[in-house]
Amino acid sequence: MAVGTQGAVKLLTPDEVRGVGIEVVLANAYHLMLRPGAQVVEALGGLARFSGWDGPTTTDSGGFQIFSQPELVRVSEEGVRFTSHIDGARVFLSPERAVEVQGAIGADLVMCLDECLPYPVERSRAAESLERTLRWAARCREAHARAGRAQALFGIVQGATYRDLREEAAERLVEIGFDGYAIGGLSVGEGPAVLREVLDWTAPRLPEGRLRYLMGAGTPEDLLAAIGLGVDLFDCVLPTRNGRSATAFTRFGRLRLRNARHARDDSPVEEGCDCPCCKRFSRGYLRHLFLAGEGTAGALLSLHNLRFYARLMHEARRAICGSRFASFCREFLAGLASGGSAGE
Prior knowledge:
Blueprint: E1 2-3, H1 14-19, E2 25-28, H2 29-34, H3 38-43, H4 47-51, E3 57-60, H5 63-67, E4 73-75, E5 80-83, E6 90-93, H6 95-105, E7 109-111, H7 123-147, E8 152-157, H8 163-176, E9 180-183, H9 192-202, E10 211-215, H10 220-228, E11 233-235, H11 238-244, E12 247-250, E13 253-256, H12 276-280, H13 283-291, H14 295-321, H15 325-339
Parallel strand pairs: 1-2, 2-3, 3-7, 7-8, 8-9, 9-10, 10-11
Antiparallel strand pairs: 4-5, 5-6, 12-13
Helix pairs in contact: 6-7, 7-8, 11-14, 13-14, 14-15
């Protein structure tokens, strides 16, 4: 899922995003409730119409964004009080309010309010936080049922990096009953080995008949590992953020377009890629645009990176259907390793 935090994938139009094979866009309820306001989005037709996106939409409740600025946040059983990063206004977000806000925004897939902890964290703190998150999840489920909206509601598995807490969280969320299950609290500095260990504990305890969503993980290596453990949905800012900073994802590692070696390079970012960037423009031209400060460069490379990820997911799905996912992963990862960081 492409990240469109403010209701837009940075530098790109909806048609461009759709054109490279992206089917779902993720926006953030925290940001949209602060600006322009959930009621404004609702009055203008809901998130899809508001943003001009003709496909499914998702919103994160804002838990990660709120807890990424801990000096501005106060947590209680009732919910979260925080200071707006825009104008300093004091804002309160309860589990019920999180459901109400996302209902007004009108995304197709919405999230429970959860508490996202930093890494590392003591077990006692993680256990206390998990209990609160589970109580919040039950309140979100009740509020969602009362509202009677058609949106799918996902519970979020927390528990830091403690196996017993992760397993307990998964089992208790399944008891509450959600349309799908997200795995949160990862990609916060724990490293790929720990991330995969936590997934190995958690994913098997989530129902096979419900979507499993790994929040925020984004390297190709992590995505393939997670798919192998049964995860279905992903979002991450890496494709577009790296695109804007002159770094491309390719099958042979990352390519850094600002490097002098590309100044006279007439080849595309990636041979064989069918994205608009690779079909028309050279590495030398893109390097020139980045050095000249032209925003077009970031847009073109963002398109390439999104296409790279869309192709990766399509090929992984095709490999699963053909009962050759393990060999596909070996070949893909060998290609990444052979090139290392392709631009260095």
